[in-house]
Amino acid sequence: MNHAAIREADYIMPAGERVHIRPLEKDDLPGLEWDGEYAHFRKLYHQHYENSLGGNTLIWVAVNADAEVIGQVFLLLLSRQRELADGVFQAYLFSFRIKPAYRDQGLGGFMLEMVEGFLRDRGFRFLRLNVARANPLARRMYEKHGYRMIGPDPGVWRYQDQNDEWQTCREPAWKMIKKL
């Protein structure tokens, strides 16, 4: 997919700060690590960036006036697991996070609505996601935006960390979906 076709937007925080939401650029990859908190996902982020060049994954970042990455959202359009994303009618949202200082100010909802609009404009009818069972605030935010729970997910998956060691992540989740 041509990155020029991907939506960009500005969001004005309640205190007046402008946040720019735009497609991820290669130079943004270190910013996704959030000062080391997510360094263990470095290789995974690079893999998703490479997938974004082919159009199967789309990634947006929210950057503040200092060009610091303060939010991110990944969107899988086509997956080998067709129940997640089939490339035509259903997409899968993941790795959606906002830095704590920017939460509860409408930015997350704005980014979610932006992604949903992008999908609607391209004929997608459903957006799927998983939300950690340990994160009831995120679940409430998704429910507020029209998502409904469709069942549990064990949330077990593997990835290679920044030291080339395989890690197993166990994050029980709720599967959620929204008709766009």
Architecture overview:
The protein is built from three helices and ten strands; from the N terminus they run ββαβββαβαββββ. With 180 residues, it is of the alpha+beta class. The chain has a single domain (3-130), classed as Aminopeptidase, CATH 3.40.630.30. A hairpin with a 5-residue loop joins strand 8 and strand 9 (166-170). The longest helix has 15 residues, at 107-121.
Distinctive features:
180 residues, 10 strands, eight-stranded mixed sheet, Aminopeptidase, alpha+beta, 21% helix
Helix content: 10-25%
Report the uncertain regions.
none
Number of strands: 10
SS element count, helices: 3
Number of domains: 1
Question: Termini, distance in Å?
Answer: 21 Å
Per the principal axes of the C-alpha atoms, what is the gross shape? globular
CATH fold node name:
Aminopeptidase
Largest sheet composition: 8 strands, mixed
Radius of gyration: 16 Å
Read across the widest sheet, the strand sequence of neighbours is 1-2-3-4-5-6-10-7
CATH superfamily: Gcn5-related N-acetyltransferase (GNAT)
What is the CATH class? Alpha Beta
* Helix-strand sequence: EEHEEEHEHEEEE
Question: How big a fraction of the residues is strand?
Answer: 35-45%
Mean pLDDT: 95
CATH architecture group name: 3-Layer(aba) Sandwich
* Alpha-beta classification: alpha+beta
